[in-house]
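Quick illustration, no need to memorize.
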Amino acid sequence: MDPSALAARTGRVRERMAELEVDVLLLSLGADLPWLTGYQAMPLERLTMLVLPVDGEATLVVPRLEAPRVEPHPERFGILAWEESEDPVAFVADLAGRRPQRIGISDRTWATFVLRLQDALPGCWWLPSSLVTAPIRAVKDPAEIDALRRAAAAADRVATQLVGGDIPLVGRTEAEVSRDIGDRLLAEGHQRVNFAIVGSGPNSASPHHDAGPRVIGRDEAVVCDFGGTLDGYCSDITRTVFTGRPPIEFRTLYDVLEEAQAMAVAAATVGTRCQDVDLVARAHIHDAGFGAHFVHRTGHGIGLEEHEDPYIAGGNTVPLAAGHAFSIEPGIYVPGRFGARIEDIVVATDGGPDPLNRVPHGLALVEA
């Protein structure tokens, strides 16, 4: 990872810490740590934590056995490798400064460490580190957008196989198809599969259906939502196909959904509030009579994590900024019958919305 980029990120974080009067950040599990240091902590019972004061030297507290995995950047942070017989919480408390102050701690830090740190640092005010880091991380730099573009292109190659009928569906279980999609993501360059949702027939009406033993049949909807991690950044795409001839009710539903998704993408311009992009999709679906069947937000941010800021949802008044990357994924779900979802990753730019996924959105009829 480019050391100058990491240094620039740390500088922006410290500026925001000063604005919010946060004295120190304690960053453990989650994406903030690798975003600032290039080091991805394993989710162990052993504490790893970056102690980042608003000014002064930062220190990465890490288990001795994990220290060889850390790429040193002595100009930006020191490394304190603790032994199995030592107490890392005491080290963190000493580095943080044992005095009343405002401390931001990683949203995903294990509760056992949060509670011990609160005992070790009495009189402090605690807040989630995301109040500091999330708005900064949400605006992707050119290198991050290029990484997201590569991940999206790899996922597109799998989605193209899906809509082209090259992934067998009929007669296979959802779980088999899910594994197949995951294997194809890896073959296209992803280092990790994050999820591969496959919902068929009535299961297509469950947005986060857990692919199981149901055998996919003919003449039914199949929703496939999948993504992984490629060079640290995530992909996420959804396409819905139909294994045969769809009934008129489903085709009508799908036409409305396709229009709503395109309208929301077009609305995702710099300066538009996230909730207003959500409303564009929601209003169109509502006006067509399917409002009760759109049961989730229109989208989520994406980057080092599958879900991060900005969230394209009602109540989020944050305006889109150039560099924001997010999904646009409305869905319509009729319980017990069928459902559909269309999802692309989009980047807001000064020249307009830039969809990273290019797979056609029309309803694919597959015989596979």
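The chain has nine helices and 18 strands.
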